[in-house]
Amino acid sequence: MQTQRSSKQEWQIIPLTIADQQVHITRSEQLLSETAPGSSPVLYWSQARPAGLVLGFSQKETLRNPLSRMEEDLPVYHRRAGGTAVLVGPDMLGLDVVLPAEHPLVLADVVESYSWFGETWVRALLQLGIPTRIVTPAEAHADRLLARQNETQARETILRRACYASNSSYEVVADQRKVVGLDMIRRRNGSLLQAGVLLSWHSERLAHLLGHTPAEQELLRRELPQRAVGLDTLAQRSITVQEIIQAFEIALQEPDVER
Question: Which residue, of 3, 77, 204, 210, has the fewest CB within 10 Å?
Fold first, then answer.
């Protein structure tokens, strides 16, 4: 484990680990369970191999297209955090941040505890020439209202089987398309914040996995490209994982991160 010094304390950095997604899920839960007063905050970078489908805590595997289970030998995982389905693999970079409960970035307001994370990602991506912005809480609230309106509820229910089809507070978007998704697990001893960075956005496979009928698949195929976007599309080049990691760790050292 490497250690990187910031202006106020040390961050323990676990370099990029490529492994089965269950290894990452288990490791992040272990890191959270081990944090204690006085512990250094931890960054854990990850990518899944093989590719897999990760479902949110309350999701059931029955949301997946039954035919796709027969056609694809794709492992399915469950995370402890909320949200909906995410396709992990070579097109996704994961970052887990573990903070002890007394850390200044752990705020009483759970939603506001995301703010530094999203803002750091915006600064990091700008270093790579990719302008993005955070989703404000007001925008996120409006997005949730949209999903409950009678005229849009059925359509949004299908689209929101995919986590990157909706925006939550302080997630990172380019215009309205999600680039970095966030979630959190909070316990008495600390918090685990997780980010999923879209290196590429191949929505066709996700549409096949989550659409139960031809009409649902067509809806997902048509709309998902408008809901999220990969860094490769925004930069018009392939962005390496190491570039992203370096940019984030530099952005993390900026003074306003340490509150």
Answer: 3
